[in-house]
Amino acid sequence: MPAQPENEQRDVREKLLLREAQLSQAQRMAGMASWEWYFGETTIRWSPEMYLFWGYEPGEIEVDLNSVAQATHLDDLPILQRAIIRAMQGEDVEMEYRRYDKLGREIFIHSIGRIIFNEHTQPIGVFGIDMNITKHKQQELTLVRLNQELADKNRELEKRNDELRAFSYVASHDLQEPLRKIQAFSNLILVTESANLSAQGHNYFQRSIAAAQRMQRLIKDLITYSQTEKANHSTQSVDLNHLLDQVKAELHDSIADTEATIHSGPLPTVPVVEFMFRQLLHNLINNALKYARQQVPPVIQVTYQTTVQKPVAIETASPADLYHQLTITDNGIGFDPAYSHKIFQLFQRLHGQHEYAGTGIGLAICQRIMENHGGVIVAEGRLGEGSTFTLTWPVQPEAALPAPGL
């Protein structure tokens, strides 16, 4: 067979060098490196990228099965040993294990080895590709740790919820019974022993009864607040007109005593947690009645519309294309606009106990109810003129109907 001309041999060598350079560049870009191991030998051939992979200069160290084993994490040696046995049996191998580079840093490796066969289809060695997956494994381990922390927090939260439920039971039964007896016996003493009591004694018993009543209101409000958790409460279609009528009936005596007038436009039927929204309307209407101006009958206006405008406090509201917006306006004493956020905080009061009765929980309950519906409540005060509370929450896609009259 005639020998190839010298220029053809040179072209072949140049093409081989070019392909090797392209392969080398591809390996570096992909964060990979290659190796070869032939059965019967202990030496392992590394590509130039493999040396750089481990922090060495090409050819800086001798690489064999023993040196690779010594650089492998002790806990992962069995993985490497099993892979070597499978390869010698003619099986392709794939594994993840940890090794240390020149500086002693732990590196996670994903290694894929394919068997090399001779012309007689006999396995003679392995050609492999290694990939550095340290960042991926670190992210994976971080995710596992965060999931574990989340599971721990969920267990702690469930424990706290159990304690809260236990507290609610104790508060609704065991704590209120002594208070009822204090009020009953104090009233009994005032009735049966009135002639034997001084004016100061009468005053003490009346103050004791008032304190017990305040304590009872506080307990009831705390129970209500604890019951406005979102879990285990499903929404249903609720007619807000009917709900408002129920609240008016509940507050009939206060409405009559203050000569209040409540105006409302047509209200829709919306998917909400019914008992929560009843409590919400009750608290807001009751507030408007309580904080009326002296000698000025309360006038309360309830209106509804849908809007595409996102709420101001959008960070606490669920995103939506359309929002319900319910507004309750009164002509009461109002409040300084500087306190528009403070009034929703638990136990916060803008007035003394002797001026206006209450526990400072009512508006905190309203805020929690709106949060449970993915919405927000915003208060605007006009000192000496009145207040406006705007409730905004997302319209569910299946319930995206136009507002009444629009």
Number of distinct beta strands: 12
Strand order, main sheet: write it out. 2-1-5-4-3
Gyration radius, rounded: 39 Å
How much of the sequence lies in strands comes to: 15-25%
Judged by helices, strands and strand pairing, the structural class is alpha+beta
The H/E string reads HEEHHHEEEHHEHHEEHEEHEE
The helicity comes to 40-55%
The biggest sheet, with number of strands, parallel, antiparallel or mixed sense and barrel status, is: 5 strands, antiparallel
**Rough shape?**
elongated
- Ranges where pLDDT stays below 50 over 5 or more residues in a row are 346-359, 399-406
Question: What is the terminal separation in angstroms?
Answer: 95 Å
Q: Helical segment tally?
A: 10
- Mean pLDDT, as a whole number? 80
Structure description:
The structure is a single chain. The chain is α+β, with helices and mostly antiparallel strands. The protein is 45% helix and 21% strand. The strands form three sheets. It has a five-stranded antiparallel sheet with strand order 2-1-5-4-3, with helices on both faces. Strands 7-9-10-12-11 form a five-stranded mixed sheet, covered by helices on one side. Strands 6-8 form a two-stranded antiparallel sheet. The termini are far apart. Residues 346-359 and 399-406 have low confidence and may be disordered.
